[in-house]
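Below is a filled-in request sheet from our internal design queue. Each sheet records the structural input a requester submitted and the sequence that came back. We keep these sheets so that new team members can see what a complete request looks like end to end.

REQUESTER: design group, bay 2
PRIORITY: normal
MODE: inverse folding
CHAIN LENGTH: 299
BACKBONE (tokenized):
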């Protein structure tokens, strides 16, 4: 069996001198979000993370679904693909497999990611697709004017649940971990500097990186406001061990407080693209050896 089928884990990104300014990543299209929307903070964090990485705009693709949050690619000079509701992951997968050199950042809402796109989310996670996925989680459907979403809390009152929803919310971090994601983080758009740093880490991570980002909708969600998250959210303790899945699970479960930062990270796993490339480059023997190595890893 060949010694080295998988590409070695990506080394930590060396400190780069940014060659671009934030202005280079702006499309010139003025964001159409309501005043005070949390998604402005996410957009700023995306610009700053790309600047920190020093990427040329033409080397980056922002992929989104449908929703207020999914408009984000319009406001960037990078390539962008505003797809179909819930189909952020299939399109990101196709782009990444067709051209693994492209830097693919996926961005969408909680409805897009966990309702109509929930099945795709799980499969992208278990394949360890090498994509960083920032979910702008406002616990509501903003674009369609305020319906209950998969992350709305029990009792949440909207037009679709006038007596309050009886359904328990999806916990995005636990869903990601249970599905096999190898980088699982939570952020808050009211802390865009920290979010930008997390996006850089998510991009640098080899494999599926999700950053569930509280991004308030002041127009339709009067409960989960900036103040609500400021009061509830704290940074992870310094001694948090992100390699300990049980510790990560417990802290993802916590509601008082809720934790911000990288809860879980598994290094060194091969990505979906690497599996595909290795299996399809070379001989039948090589493909068989790749499968043998995969089985060894997960046995
Ligand atoms: C197949 C399909 N079903 C439903 C819709 C209607 N629709 C558009 S956006 C959306 C939900 C958006 O919520 P979310 O993803 O949380 O994004 P937000 O607007 O809150 O940022 C829905 C149900 C659609 N466009 N396409
Ligand atoms: S409806 Fe809500 S999510 Fe949509 S732009 Fe307005 S504040 Fe933002
Ligand atoms: Mg939403």
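RETURNED SEQUENCE:
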């Amino acid at each position: 069996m060949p010694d080295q089928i998988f590409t070695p884990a990506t080394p930590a990104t060396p400190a780069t001198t940014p060659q671009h300014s934030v202005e280079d990543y702006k499309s010139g299209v003025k964001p159409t979000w309501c005043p005070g929307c949390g998604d402005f903070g996410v957009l700023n964090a995306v610009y700053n993370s790309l600047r920190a990485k020093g990427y040329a705009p033409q080397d980056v693709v922002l992929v989104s679904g449908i929703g207020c949050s999914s408009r984000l690619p319009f406001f960037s000079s990078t390539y962008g693909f505003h797809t179909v509701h819930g189909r952020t992951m299939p399109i990101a997968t196709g782009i990444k497999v067709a051209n693994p050199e492209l830097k693919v950042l996926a961005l969408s809402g909680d409805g897009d990611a966990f309702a109509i796109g929930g099945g795709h989310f799980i499969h992208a996670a278990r394949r360890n697709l090498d994509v960083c996925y920032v979910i702008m989680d406002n616990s509501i459907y903003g674009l369609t004017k305020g319906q209950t979403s998969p992350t709305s809390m029990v009792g949440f009152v909207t037009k679709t649940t006038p007596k309050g929803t009886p359904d328990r919310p999806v916990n995005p971090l636990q869903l990601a971990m249970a599905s096999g994601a190898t980088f699982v983080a939570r952020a808050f758009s009211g802390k865009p500097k920290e979010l930008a740093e997390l996006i850089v880490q998510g991009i640098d991570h080899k494999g599926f990186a999700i950053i569930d980002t509280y991004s308030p909708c002041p127009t339709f969600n009067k409960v989960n406001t900036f103040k609500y998250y400021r009061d509830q959210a704290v940074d992870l303790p310094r001694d948090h061990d992100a390699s300990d899945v049980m510790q990560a699970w417990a802290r993802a479960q916590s509601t008082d407080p809720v934790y911000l930062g990288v809860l879980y990270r598994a290094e060194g796993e091969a990505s979906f693209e690497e599996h595909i490339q290795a299996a399809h480059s070379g001989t039948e023997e090589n493909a068989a050896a790749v499968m043998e190595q995969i089985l060894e890893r997960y046995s």
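SHEET NOTES:
- Residues 1-15 have pLDDT under 50 and may be disordered.
- Strands lie at 60-64, 79-82, 103-109, 132-137, 140-141, 147-148, 183-188, 209-214, 233-235, 258-265.
FILED BY: M.R.
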